[in-house]
Design goal:
Blueprint: H1 11-21, E1 29-30, H2 35-40, E2 46-47, H3 54-68
Parallel strand pairs: 1-2
Length: about 80
């Protein structure tokens, strides 16, 4: 992963990211089925394959758990009495 953009899932956010990525001459984008990709990115650079995105998804999961620790007592499960079984 070279870069990322935090924002709404719209074409404006995607255009900001693509503009920053242009300095690296990206040759391939791994995407999901979001329509905005086809309107902003060249079709010959798009690859829709979940088999090769598992590392990115694993990283996203780790980041979610890391940020959640600021609002929970442990990585996944709260140990407070109110949140008990």
């Amino acid at each position: 992963m070279l870069d990322w953009e935090c924002g709404h899932r719209d074409t404006d956010t995607l255009k900001k990211l693509v503009k920053r990525l242009s300095k690296w001459n990206v040759t391939l984008y791994y995407i999901d089925k979001w329509e905005a990709y086809a309107s902003v990115l060249p079709a010959d650079k798009l690859t829709m394959d979940k088999g090769l995105t598992h590392e990115i998804e694993r990283n996203n999961c780790r980041n979610r758990h890391w940020f959640d620790r600021f609002k929970r007592r442990s990585i996944v499960v709260s140990k407070s009495v109110e949140m008990g079984p």
